[in-house]
Amino acid sequence: MDEEEDMGISFDLICPECGVGNPRGATNCLVCDKNLEDTIAFMEDDFFDLEITKDCLVEYRKTFWGTDRTGKINKYFLDKIKDIEFGSPVNRFIFIYEDKRVVIPLRDENMEVIRNFFKKVE
Hints:
By secondary structure, this protein is mainly β. The chain has helices at residues 3-6, 108-121; strands at residues 13-14, 21-22, 39-44, 48-53, 56-62, 69-77, 81-87, 92-97, 100-105.
């Protein structure tokens, strides 16, 4: 292996708030200064990005093409999420939040993260 490759820094820790890559082990985002230690899990999906913190599930909406964020953010406090279902055969995370039904379609790998997280919370 080349010595230059050994010394390379990987910027694969994505900031949920601004989407910038940060070096592994960073505690705050290099650009927006968000505390990255607050994030339990971060998932990029087709129409949104999802962040799980100790208090909430945050949905960052994307454009139709899934290339850019729209600026719309939905924040669901974990203690108010009720009646959780996992849709099948189409992966959908379904729950009741403030008396409204919320349906979030997910990629397979993101459905596994959500399913495992909410098993621990129950």
